[in-house]
Amino acid sequence: MPENLVIPKNESWKMFDAISAKYDFLNRVLSLGQDVRWRQLLKKYLPPASEQMLLDIATGTADVAITLTEHNPQVKMTFGVDMAREMLKIGQGKIDRKKLTGKIILQHGDAQALSFMDDTFDCVTIAFGIRNIPDLRLALLEMYRVTKKGGRVLILEFSLPANPVLRWGHWMYLQWVVPAVGFLFSGNWKAYKYLNQTIESFPYGDRFCKILIQFGFTNVTAYPLMGGVATIYAGDKI
Predict the structure, then answer these.
(1) 128 phi and psi, to 5 degrees?
(2) Do residues 209 and 220 lie in contact, with contact meaning Cβ atoms separated by under 8 Å?
(3) Domains contained in the chain, CATH given
């Protein structure tokens, strides 16, 4: 992690609370709507079991939890945890409006010290949140612990394209466009400067696959999206 992060990772939840009112809107704008498609793609990689129990870590405004649960008979119940209470309030409003209150439960919680018992969930997901966790080691240990044997983890995270031209263009977008647009609509320059810093410092691709293997996950695979702008990582617990 770079020492000059504009917001320390252990305080990033405060940043998300501060921008919660504009968070969903800016996600759509800054990803050109691709974040919606990427979350839908997570469904493709759910394990094949029926009556699944899911856990979505860093659930934020609950978009992943809703996407994986709504109109999906494969999923029995989904829990979502996050440190940012204002984000959770927005997520709960969405769940109530969609009448999913009985299927999705949101709670305040820390990815580094989950309150669930061992071997509880068929699938544990986290989207665009793993790079914000202060201690990646603790988070991965917890994800492994609460996943059932035969279960799966799915991690959707930003990455950097391998193609040098696309990589340069994406870097310029992260460096200048994202903070400017974020500031224009949210008034919070630091939050969207933090975004590009954490993307650039995250050990994406093969490096992250090796980390998942070190923590006990098997059949680890990376699925790049849009040339590597984002990546879905899948790993099983046997």
Answers:
(1) 55, 35
(2) yes
(3) 11-160+202-236 (3.40.50.150)
